[in-house]
Amino acid sequence: MIYITMIILLIVLTIVLSDIVPLLKTWVSRVHIGRYENEEIWIQAIVNKSIKWLNNTPKIKVTDNTRLTIIERIKGNYSKNAIQHWQQAALLLGLNDYLKVKSDNNIKIEINKFLKSNFNKDGSWKEKLKFIDCAILSYAVMNYDKVDKYKVSYDETYSLIRELIGSDETVKYRKSMEDYRYVDTIGFICPFLIKYGVRFNYEEAIELAINQIKDYYKYGFDNENIIPFHAYDIKNKYKLGLCGWGRGLGWFAIGVIDSWRELPENNKYKKEIEEIVVTFSKSILKLQLNNGAWGWTVTRKETRIDSSTTATLAYFLTYASIIKDIEKECKLACDKAIKYLMSVTRRDGTIDFSQGDTKDIGVYSMLFDKLPFTQGFALRAIVKASKEVNKSEIEYSI
Known about the structure:
Elements: H1 2-29, H2 39-54, H3 69-75, H4 81-99, H5 105-118, H6 134-144, H7 151-163, E1 180-182, H8 184-200, H9 203-219, E2 221-222, E3 227-233, E4 239-243, H10 246-262, H11 270-287, H12 307-320, H13 327-343, E5 354-355, E6 368-369, H14 372-385
Antiparallel strand pairs: 1-3, 2-3, 3-4, 5-6
Helix pairs in contact: 2-4, 2-14, 4-6, 4-14, 6-7, 6-8, 8-9, 8-10, 10-11, 10-12, 11-12, 12-13, 12-14, 13-14
Protein name: Glycoside hydrolase family 88 protein
Keywords: Hydrolase
InterPro entries: 6-hairpin_glycosidase_sf, 6hp_glycosidase-like_sf, Glyco_hydro_88, PolySaccharide_Degr_Enz
């Protein structure tokens, strides 16, 4: 009887600790948050955390539940691999951008380790592709891979995307969602498609990306304020979900700015995409808060600030500032955003208070914690904007 009681108590203790320990760790990690005074030290902390996470990426929760999480862990509902792809992609993009301005052997070692663990010797994916979330990871690898060692995997990614082309000649988010087009997809696939199309001379890949952006801009935006809804219905042209979901703006922002950057200067779509960049820039500048951040709902000042929105929009603005007509205001807004991110960085270099994973169209997380995706895009913004980083003799080019 005593042994049974002890076993029961041990099980109860395990369940309780599985909930309490993560909460305690988060609380402790926030002690003395945002106390960086030296920008160079802060940037190095961001880099160090990104290096650590690339091959040990924290599992991002699918659920908002903080009680009895052991049940969801057992059922496999705690986290999903598809979520991890865009976390890893952002870290790889950030670290690769940093390498362009400062040589760091530790980063190279970790990136090569990451590539070996994800790709076969022939350059194909080790794990069979299921979702288009992988396209942003392919894009990140393409940015590092200058000799096309992983060309087979890029072809695999492109084939997966083509399988999801719907009746309107744009790409579905999932096979089961035939009639909906998500703003997330702009960030997931468009930069990859354009880089893939330009590098390997596949004009149809470029056309697919341009159609995806133009159709979303036409049907998925609030026409007056020029900000996106979460999704739209291709048959009835209903605009779905929240208008002004912060990370939705971020997904569109990184998708359109990297697509614009990847297009050659003489490409027939370059100017058209640039016009979207300019118009969208003016919209998000109006929505920036006085402290430099954006909320998880950008149209309401009362909502919680989201670091993932702030990091992605800061990154967008660093490159939008290349356009002379909006140069000054974009640079100023980006500097303010980066200062905000510095103010919410933990002692160990983790940027805090990013919104958790979205559950469905119109169903958003109310948890705000660490997110590797934020870490990566903050680093990308910092690399382009920071004077401390750009003291390097190595020239940084777009």
